[in-house]
Amino acid sequence: MFNLIYILKKKPEVVAVAFQKISQGGMGFLTSLLIATLINIEYQGYYFTLVNFAAAFTLLDLGLSGLLVQISASLFAKSKMNNLDFTNSSLSNNFGEFIIWTRKYFLKLSILYILILPIAYLYFVKSTPNLSDNFWLGPLCMTIFSVALSIPAYAFLSIIEGIGRVKAAYSLRIVIIFLGGLAGLYCIFNNQPLYAPSMIPLAMSLVVYYWAFTNYKNLLFYKEINSQHSEENWKSSLLTLRNKVKLTTIATFLFQSGPTLIIFYYLGPVPAGQIGISISFLGMIAFISNSFFIAKIPELTRLVSLNNHIASRELFIHEFKRAVGFTLIGYFVWMTLIYLMHEIHHISERFLSPYDMLLLIMNFIIIQLVTLLNAHSRSQGFEVMAHPFFNATIFSTAFFIIFNSHLSVTNLLLSMNIAYLLFCVLPIIKYLLRLKFTISTHNE
Prior knowledge:
By secondary structure, the chain is mainly alpha-helical. It has helices at residues 2-10, 12-38, 41-54, 57-61, 68-79, 93-127, 137-162, 166-189, 199-215, 217-220, 234-256, 258-267, 269-289, 291-295, 297-305, 309-341, 345-348, 354-378, 386-402, 409-423, 425-443. The model is unreliable at 1-10 and 87-91 (pLDDT under 50).
């Protein structure tokens, strides 16, 4: 209790980060619940297929947008600026070049996204035997446009966070979640549920661009004053970091979005909707459970930078236990609800069967452990679970694509279970034992 009061008073940034994550998970939970109760089961499949189809941006980004906070924080600190007067000619060349490069790069990604996604959609439509019509073309175009528009906005918000405006950045994200979430709920209640996925990225674009134009106009339109090239090769550092996280990024997309897209392609919208909404609910339980752990990542990184590895490991173990504990409790409650809802036909048909749900929960528990260990090791400059996670996901994805004639939701989930058990469990155990041994040796 006293620890919570201390955090609220002394660390408002931690509270802002945690509250944003909880708000995001809560709004997603509410939206999915309304999807399951207010629209027909076939539209549910189209909804979650559309959401996961639009998420393909992560395959273009490859984790780069998630590194902008770290790089911008480092470059801004070295620029020795105490304010945001970006017309000042004494601005560090490194930071100035970074601002310009980021704006151009993510604008190119937006254009590339707009060009590639329609082509992927046409291939998807022409080769999918279970797709009867194109009634979701309008919502898809709206979602593609809103996501493309939000890509530079997301990058700008990450830079704002990196230069120390953490509370402002997360306050904006909370506003975006509520505005976009309410707009999405409006679409659902007005019988236009397929337009709901476009509302959050659209809110991101409108809020961030207006706020940036009002408060950080010089940063938004910053132009290089000094033609002299920077001495530090920050771009090489940025791309090196991306190479460390890109395998995890690809594997995460395949784990979260791959099953829904593959089931839709081979089995149709109804089973795709069942697995899509089940992944959504389990993902949000894990997301909310990890909120305070995510908020403590900067503290972990700070301790590592000070070579205080014992303290960082003790902090990690404490937050690790709390996150896993909350997740297990959440999954137990959810599994109980699934068993109770199984007796109510019109609700149970929206979700996986209790047996399939249990298989999916096993996968999610392993992936949460992977995520937490990667977060800890990333603070030390490497991704301990990147290759095991990537290999397991590629193995399971290839397996049920090659043997699609025997594809069912149960077989898909079993293949994922086998792959993650084979590739991920042993590295997880080894890493945790090494952490525990190091802390025990220090205490002795």
